[in-house]
Amino acid sequence: MNKELLEKSVTELAQLIKSKSVSPVEVTENMLQYIESSNPQTNAYVAITADSALKAAKHAENEIMQGKYKGTFHGVPIALKDNIYFANEVTTMCSKIHRDFVSKEDATVTARLREAGAVFTGKLNMHEYAWGIDNNSPHFGAVHNPWNPEKVPGGSSGGSGAAVASHSTYSSLGTDTAGSIRIPSSACGIVGLKPTHGRVSKYGVYPLAWTLDHVGPMSKTVADAAAMLQVIAGFDTKDPTSAPVPVVDYSASLNEGVKGLRIGINEAYFFNQVDSRVERIIRERLDDLEKQGAILSTVSIPALQYAEWAELAISLSEASTIHHEDLLKRPDDFGDDIRFLFEWGELFSSVDYLQAQQVRRALKQQFTQVLREVDVLVAPTLPFLVPNIGDNLVDINGQKTDFIQNCIRFTGPSNLTGLPALSVPAGISEGLPVGLQIIGRAFDEATLLKAAYAIEAMQPLAGHKPVLAP
């Protein structure tokens, strides 16, 4: 097994494949060997598709040898979250009810990656139906955080976070309804981007809440996230929420720096009740950005005080509608935590739901106004260090408080507004990574990526690596 090859980023690996220094078959065989040895430790994969991966790798190799190189992902092994459909393959949503579900066609994002030449090595573990944040599945088992196997990896895209961090995939896709890309990205020390609502098609992705769901990259580096977004972004007639907005070159401005970048800080909400270990690291990165020429200013978004309630009212109502029939006919086939949430969702009234939509409208208006004054907002991704598997409480400055509520507190507003948001590693505390969140204007993912690239260049992980890695 070639450990150095496993640790490459997608963009680094792509140069080796393009120059024929390594072959897609060699890379895929190496990855499959590593998955076999590493997955018992992380439980990141729920399905490993070795035969089809090797077939795709051989096809990619033949194309490249014939001079038909397609780009960055050609011949690169990747795995996706198990609520993203693959034609004629099982997609379980890590549930009992859909354990044998087979889609007739690829999700749009799957099809676009397949067309780009990606090699799919399998499907990744997730919280059941994407509604949870510890990724402790009653049906497929807990995913273990590669930085500390006793810790949760975050969720619901915990398998994607753990697989990328442990190098058992070169990159991945997650889904995000209240933070499910950014939460595991923060917990696992990787880059996670929730694009603008409508930027990436959701067709062929099992929904959690129709109006809040997003699909986006989870990757080792900012450059990899930009490259992945380049492939999957763009209008799709199959998705009624898809936006016909032109796709820019997301890699072009990564290294432009942050001089003159206007960064907004919302102290009242995004720095309220944050563990001191996390806050110190985020403040240090903000200081570093300011030293590089960024301009920091304090902003006010009053409607944020209602954001947590609105996020829950909308997400629970929509999720419970999707699962209503199964909740009536086979409630015991849901995990206990999921069944409770879906039952809770049925208690919201139409008045609750529509009032939450009014909060949402106010948030959109206020964020839009603030983002005329600044280019991005910066906040912690999570206000705490992730807890042990099985814990329902987290520690914030010595006080025990609810895990789920505090997990989505800083991530949920970007789902309500639909604005792009990215988590990038900002530092290490007590052996665990801390994520910094960047929120920006609609369809301006390029600015988020540029700011994240500047933070990544600071080498905030300081050479620390996950214990479950090659």
Automatic annotation (TrEMBL):
- Amidase domain mapped to chain residues: 26-449
Q: Which Pfam families match?
A: Amidase (PF01425)
Entry-linked Gene3D superfamilies: Amidase signature (AS) domain
Q: Which SUPFAM superfamilies match?
A: Amidase signature (AS) enzymes (SSF75304)
Domain of life from the UniProt record: Bacteria
Question: Which InterPro entries does the UniProt entry name for this protein?
Answer: Amidase, Amidase_CS, Amidase_dom, AS_sf
Sequence similarity: Belongs to the amidase family.
Q: What is this protein called?
A: Amidase
Native organism is Paenalcaligenes hermetiae
Lineage of the source organism?
Bacteria, Pseudomonadati, Pseudomonadota, Betaproteobacteria, Burkholderiales
